[in-house]
Structures are given as structure tokens and as C-alpha cells.
Amino acid sequence: MINRLLNKTSIATLLASVSMLATTPALAAEEQATVNYTGRDKVEYDYAYALGVQATVYGWAPVMMDVALELQTSVDAPMDNGQAPVNQIGPITRLWDHRDRSYTTPNNDTLYLQAWADLEDEPLVLFVPEIKDRYWIEQIVDMYTESVVDLGNATVGDQGGYFVLAKRGYEGELPEGVEVHYSNTRYIWLAGRLGVENAQDEEKST
Question: Does the keyword field hold Signal (predicted)?
Fold first, then answer.
């Protein structure tokens, strides 16, 4: 799946990342102490360094998101640890603790569910059931981790509903009377969270 992102942008980013390893601030300072850049050489050095930083910042997110996409969708059916094939939801049916590594700092009062969706050929229709008296959010981001939409108590309320997720530029038919949210990238990540209070509440939520 990594090949999906091996285009001009990501190749330039990877090359810039390699360049950055040789031009971290500490190494750059040491190098400049032995090589006195002046005039045109100094301008070219500063430009190359600034370009490498910008390319790395721009391209790091989609490369790492593609790694996560490959790892979290490399199963044949949804698992109870959050893994699931593309366009399927992987529910996590227990509260996480220090042993879990899929999220950097998982909450111990939150049930997670996640999905990776491919919007290249057609939009995705997402149904959210009615969720009353409980914190919930479905955070949806593109491959640059830019927000597509955050569905939750604060934006939707507890009534739920149907929502369409489409790639920007899609010109096909769309359901009438349904909110449509557009992604700038083909793949999106849906990270759902459902608040729970204790072990008994966890059993009711799963």
C-alpha cells in the first residue's frame, strides 16, 4: 500500500527527510563551524535547509498515515482491537490500558472504534444511531490529518443520522437531504470515541 503515496511529493519528502538527518541544528552548527559559508554558498545552504524542513513538515503526515492505514486494515474481517478491512468499522470492545499501543495515549474511560475509508470510486454513507446521555464523537480526517468533519454531541447532538463522505470533486449522484462532507484525499480515517463511566457502564455500551 505504500506505493500509493510514492508520487513526486512523497519522494521529495523522503529525500528531504534523509537530508534533514544530515542537517539537524546540532550537526548544522558543527558543520558551519568548520565550513564558513559566505555569499552564494550561504544563500544556497540556507535555502536547501529551509526547503527540507518545509517538505518534511508537509509530507510527514500522509506518509505516516499510509503506514497506519496498511497496518490497521491488514485483516480479512473486523477485529475487536480496532483493525478492519477498508470501508469497514473495527470496534474496540474493551477499555484500553498501558498494554495497548494503537493510540499513543488512550483514555481509560473511552471505548474506541475506527475505520479507514476509500472514497475514490464512490462516496461512503455513514449512519450514526441515536446516542443519549453519553459523550461521543466521530472524528474524520484526511491523509494530511486535516479535519473533514467532527460528528459528535457538540455538532450533531444525540439524534444521530445519516452523513455522506465524498472525495472533493465527486460529480455523481448524492442522496437528497443528507449532509455531505468532502475530503481532499482519497483515503480518510474515522476515529470514533464513546465515553463510559465504569465497568458496568462499559458492558452496556458494547
Answer: yes
